Amino acid sequence: MPLLKDLVWDKTPTFGLQDLFRDTVNVSRLAISVAGIHRIPSSLMAQITSYKAKYTSRSTLLKDLSAAANLVECDIDFGGDLHGSVVLPRLRRLAAGGTLLGHMVAPAMQELCVTHHIDHVLPFLQRSGCALTRLMLFQCTGSGRNIIRLLRGIPSLTILEIDFISFTTSKALIPALTIPPDSTGSDVEYLCPYLVSLSWGDRDDRMDYPAFVAMADMLRSRWRIPGQKSPSLRLVRIYLNQVRMRTGGKWMQWMQVLADEGMDVAVVQSTRDYPPTDTWRHGWIVI
Fold it and tell me: What is the rounded CA–CA span in Å between residue 13 and residue 283?
């Protein structure tokens, strides 16, 4: 199959994969949606630019990634830890569990989706020496203090998507993202000075009225930043669940003020038009 460039395998078991690999000499985009020991030939991994797979074996994962010198975007579903390290010189887009980052170097990284733990994210970025522009924290279990510390270490960030597990964490981040009215507009004074897009999902579904007011104030502070002629934050999506959707009218009234001024802001419930937070990571890389 010399013309085949995209390959998606979703069958169980994976026995037929080996025969297929021998015939796919030009595949550059590969997705394996079933877990298993895939034993992908090193020659095939070396030519792949987009890769999405589930792993159960750390040794197989390390072997495959070590051979993927031309990988540009990657989504790895693996719940364990690695022994060893891997350098991916061309990787620009990655979705992975937080522990996996402790064993990776990716100097070209621009967009990162991290599931659960965030402890390894900042050391990974510092080790890689990359300038991250987009960060998704999926099912984030980090504390408010640790998330703030992480964001302070990524001043280049323009797109932030956070899927909170804890309302306490969500509540702690709101004032940290708020720009004080007496700010001089200096980039070093506040978190994420170049942020243009924010998606905010709170699974705990317990946001109270004070936090709601604080959220509105935070968005306004980033819409009109002192010392800047044009708005910074332009696109905002706040995802409401069942409890908070009952008061969605109040949210929408407050957000409408910003919308009338030109901000692309929406308070939404998960629908076909606005994918639920559970699917945020699934759509990170589409093959």
Answer: 24
Instruction: Read off the pLDDT of each residue in 67-92 and give the average, rounded to a whole number.
Output: 90
Dihedral angle sign, alpha carbons of residues 182, 187, 193, 194: positive
**For the chain, where are the alpha helices, taking DSSP H only?**
17-23, 42-47, 58-67, 121-128, 144-152, 167-177, 209-223, 242-245, 248-261
Cβ neighbors of 278 (< 8 A, separation 6 or more) are: none
Question: In 3-state terms, the chain is what percent helix, strand and coil (to 5)?
Answer: 35, 25, 45
Share the mean pLDDT of the chain: 82
Instruction: Judge whether 99 and 106 are in contact, CB under 8 Å.
Output: no
Question: What CATH number should be reported for the domain whose range is 165-287?
Answer: 3.40.1350
Rounded Cα gap, residues 251 and 247, in angstroms:
7
Going from N- to C-terminal start, the domains of the chain cover 165-287
pTM comes to: 0.87
Averaged pLDDT, 215-223: 88
Structure tokens at 37: 């020991």
24-62 tens-digit pLDDT = 667 888 888 777 666 788 888 999 999 998 888 888 888
Tell me what pLDDT residue 140 has.
86
Interatomic CA distance for residues 176 and 9, integer angstroms:
44
Peptide bond before 89: cis, by omega within 30 degrees of 0?
Answer: no
Quick one: which of 49, 52, 48, 50 has its CA closest to 24? 48
- Amino acid 267 reads V
Measured from the Cβ of residue 242, the count of other Cβ atoms closer than 10 Å reads 8
Predicted local distance difference test score (pLDDT) of residue 66: 93
Q: What is the 3-state secondary structure (H, E, C) of 174-186?
A: HHHHCCCCCCCCC
